[in-house]
Write a structure and sequence with these properties.
The protein has 189 residues and is mainly β. The chain has helices at 63-70, 140-151, and strands spanning 74-81, 88-95, 100-107, 109-117, 120-127, 132-137, 159-164, 172-177, 180-184.
Length: 189
């Protein structure tokens, strides 16, 4: 039979109904840190002060918003519309946390059922027998702010991400919930 020797072990909690004794009290000091320097492997978040026009986290100035962009799930759906005579072949969604979704389609319009999902970073639509594509990269601060604003609307309707593709020069994406519509810019145009 083995015996527990309290002199040889340090433990937390009430074990054997023995009295707990504080060994030490620790304190932590807050250290200022530029959270944008946080390196997350394989992240779609792009921060490069030398190329500010390609900074898709510009305007996000706190860690809570950063984590909401990468982790928080919102209930949203996707609709993609093409001109008559064109068919969508594939839709690719990339997210700020580097997850992606690829959907094979053969239709003129596409609607993805509303579900809880993280905010997309980019959408790509291949159409027209593989000869054309539509790429749209979202500004992290803009799309997060829009999702938060629409999420605060108190009805059960899901947020809709709608992409209307006319041609390369007159295509756009926007978010909609109820009668509120928020246009989204492509950070590369």
């Amino acid at each position: 039979m083995s015996h527990f020797n309290a002199k040889d072990s340090v433990y937390f909690g009430k074990i054997f109904e023995e009295k707990l004794v504080n060994i030490s009290v620790l304190t932590a000091k807050e250290v200022p840190y530029d959270w944008k320097k946080l390196k997350i492997s394989k992240s779609h978040l792009y921060y490069n002060p030398e190329i500010p026009e390609k900074d898709n986290v510009k305007g996000i100035d706190n860690f809570k918003d950063y984590t909401n962009l990468v982790i928080k799930r919102y209930k949203w759906s996707l609709s993609v519309n093409l001109p008559e005579g064109k068919n969508i072949e594939k839709i690719s969604l990339n997210y700020f946390n580097n997850e992606d979704t690829n959907i094979e389609v053969n239709a003129n319009t596409f609607k993805l059922k509303a579900e809880d999902s993280i905010i997309p970073d980019e959408i790509r639509v291949d159409y027209g027998a593989g000869s054309r594509n539509f790429d749209y990269s979202f500004d992290g601060f803009e799309i997060l702010t829009a999702f938060k604003k629409l999420d605060a609307i108190s009805n059960s309707e899901a947020i809709k991400l709608i992409c209307d593709i006319k041609n390369k020069n007159s295509s756009h994406c926007f978010l909609k919930k109820g009668n509120v519509t928020i246009p989204l810019k492509d950070i590369y145009k």
